[in-house]
């Protein structure tokens, strides 16, 4: 077994290797040929270039090349005379024209005359020119002639030296190929070079570092710490000696300085190691301190003597690092402070900014390390001493900035950073010694004052940034002083007030001194202080006691009022004037503080509200008086602020209103209910808005109008219909709301009369707010009406008559106001008309409480709506008319709901009410049409006015339908409906009632549906006579509908709707009355109806051949076709859902087969009909009729699939394929595309064959029915393939419907594609049949036979893909032979199988050897491009093969 596997694998590898080797050899040959061609092209190019060069430089035929040597001799003589003449000789060379034969017409002038400069360029050619001279006296004569020759042109004659060498030379031999330049280094060579260049250094460095590391380890292990100290010190001494030796060397000017610093640093490291580093420590106190001090002193001495800032800084930092390793105590801190002060003192001599900055930073880091290393906190004198040392360093660093050497008016970022860092670190260091003592306020205050006045010194020196910085620092210290007042038990608001006042003081002083930056910083501080104050009172608002609330309210009010005074005084300073440079930021901050004051006033209001409503038993009168007084103060401030920015004065007016609102809210604590309080607030804001309007306070009026709107909304929320209140409260709230609405209307009118308001444009905010006020009045009216409704229908026994009278009186007042409002805002008057209608509606609805039932009340309300609609149309109130019309339509929609579900009336009474409402609607629509009312109830179904639907007229029909829905069960109701409908249809022809026809049509359609529901669903077993008598009236209704459906706008009848209804009703009559219990009978009847409708359409088309006459009649043939298609679709659905799965028989035949046959006949007849050739051609002919042939074939296929067993289906599909392929050519041209569907049935047959073989066939079932049918189907598949290959292509173009154009590709298949589409499925089905039918003992041989057949097909058809597929099949068969047959079969069987396989393989080999020439064109094609000529048929003549037998 393993040997066979090895043999097969070896053979396969050998075959693959052989193919790969041949392919590679061919590629090498191609590459070699291309290289040869390339070399030949290069040689030809070189030859052509040489020939062109000869043509350019060749002299005329009559002139010999001999005159050139004298010129060269002259040039040589000139060069020998003086050395400088070489340059002039070179210069003329680029001036001479190379194309001289074109310019010089005289042949006397030799073209080589201007050539003497050329030999100078190639030095190797100079001796040649010197050897070839011939002494002739003629060159001097030629020279003057040559001089004017270069003037006409300016080209460069590079090829001039060639004539000197070419005349004596023989003809140039054939040029050899240009040698190829050596290629550059490859990427591997470059990579190798990079590795060699870089890794030597890296490895050397690594080895050196490792050696040093081992030496250090050895040294640390072998010697004692003192010796190590001595070695390190000796190394430092060696560096110092080297520095001494190099100090005079010019090349070591920088090196000796760093050697000296390195020596000092290494010595300091040795001292530190001897004191505290493990492994190096050997000295104990006080010797260790002495060693450490010696190292520090050495470094400080170097820092003092150094002339370089970097060196001095380094030694100072190293000294502090050394001090950090000894135990922390005051001595260590003092030493570090002294070292730092010494380093800072160095900067006094010259401006060393980096040293100053790093000294401050390094001391801060050292102090932090020292402080956190203490075992216990410092107390008493030690703490004071430490603080003094820290202050010493801070003062030393701060004072340095005030020296003359630092006096510079320009801003220095490093000095600024050092100064800020010094103050920051000083503050942080001192904070670490804080114990919470309240006495820190005094030094903080002194520091703030001292810093403020010291900053003036910087101003005197001209250091502006230092002045600004220290002033800001003084502000920070002042804020810290205020913050420290907490130690004296000052509350947070008090501290915040002091911080705010301090910031305002600094800001005011800076504003007077015009210091922009400090002013901005102080203003920001004031903003932060004010925000902090607000945050404090907001966070603790609910936790304050009553006394704290009162005190904090006073504090915040003082802050706000004093801030207003500051704002008033500061705004007058030149710093904030618009003309000041860069004043925008300052003004923005200043205005931001002004806005913060408004928030502070808001905080005052919040505190007072909390004091009023968050505390039990508050002093209401005192608080209200205080708030009122505060409001008066704010109003006084607003008056005092006149002349300032208007928005700040407006802010105070708004703040005053806010405080006054709080005072009004306090009325509730005195016993006034919330709705009344809201009403008082509403009236107060309205009054103040009117007064401010008189004083032309435009911005304030905006705010007050907004406040009025908010108060009105509060009134709505507190007194609106959403509150659950007793009856008396409802009456009060309704009166408040209606009264507020009336007052709003009066004030709206008064505000509109103000000159300043009426002069505004319509889009101004004031007008919009006033209009919003008018809208609020309307909402108040609506809320009052809602409360009235609730008062009517909420309590058990309301005073209905009083409430109805009140609603009527209110409606009268509103209507009267609408008359008074004429000449003002039109929309406001319209609003009052609508509100009046609403109040009248409330009064009408209240009649139900008097005793009327809901249906009658609703009908009366609807009648009132229609009556008012007519009055509005008469008075030409079109805006209100539109709203009333839409409301009437809405009520008409709700009317059937109310009539159906309310009251205790009979169905007949309800139907009568709805009928009366419908008649009233029709009458109203006729009246409106007579008065030419605007068509606001139009539904524009199209831009054409003729297609617009009038809703009011349509509603009349819908109300009739609602009435019919109550009594449709009765037979008399049908006759009554016919009478009413015919009367209204006849009335429509006399009196124009827009929309009535559509309403009647909808009513008729709905009533049809009701009757169908009654006879088919509600009472399906109704007797035939009763059903006929019940359904007959509507047959009579369709007749006048067809006759009275004239459409005057389009001058034609509209009969399609009545025709559809009549057809459907007749179908239902037949279904309900015919004694046919079988569902298939219904399909047969509908098929007959389809044929009848189609025939009638065809007759009408012949009856009215003129398109105009047909259109005037309403195109009945078109809609009859629709009826036919609809019935056909319904018959198909009924067949699939109710008939196909049934077992009933009709006339001793299955009913489903009869219905299917009838449908097939009808579909065939409809598909066979030819579309009309004259206009009009309907869309049904264009969109539905073209698909009927495919629908017929599809339905027939489905029926056969359902009726025929699976065993015979493959043969059946092939029969259909043969029939379509052979018979399709005899069909009409529009149906001839069915011929192409034979391929689809062929594929379906192949699929069916494969499915049957996989599901039902097994070895040992040969000659069974299923095997025979399957095998016969497979055989017929090959027969069909042969037939299709001969007669598949259509002779003429086919017509395809729009959606099936993709199937047209079936007719566009080339012969190669068709062969693949037919033979691959056939061979696949044969393979499955063989696998499923035969035993494994012969399966491999049979599969090999199929492979041979496929191979033979590839030879016959010249198909390369078939050859590849056959080779793949051979490989599969070999694998099966080795892995299955060899291991599972007996000896004899294996022998037979192997013999047969061998014979078949030999046969394939012989066939390939004999007929391989047929595949030669295909092989050549595959090497260049794939399938160049796909349209060549298998039997078409092929090009002759170059190979012979």
Automatic annotation (TrEMBL):
Superkingdom of the source species:
Bacteria
- Coiled-coil region list: 17-58
Which ranges are annotated Pro residues under compositional bias? 141-151, 162-182, 1436-1445
In residue numbers, the region (Disordered) covers 141-184, 1422-1445
Residue ranges annotated as transmembrane are 6-24, 199-221, 227-246, 258-280, 286-304, 356-372, 384-402, 437-455, 467-485, 491-510, 517-537, 549-567, 588-613, 619-638, 650-667, 673-691, 703-722, 734-752, 773-793, 799-818, 830-848, 854-874, 886-905, 911-929, 949-966, 972-988, 995-1015, 1027-1049, 1056-1074, 1080-1099, 1119-1137, 1206-1224, 1236-1258, 1264-1285, 1314-1332, 1338-1357, 1364-1382, 1388-1408
Print the keywords alphabetically. Answer: Coiled coil, Membrane, Transmembrane, Transmembrane helix
Q: Is the keyword Kinase in the record?
A: no
Q: Which PANTHER family match?
A: AT HOOK TRANSCRIPTION FACTOR FAMILY-RELATED (PTHR48125:SF12), LP07818P1 (PTHR48125)
Q: What is this protein called?
A: DUF2339 domain-containing protein
Native species of this protein? Hymenobacter chitinivorans DSM 11115
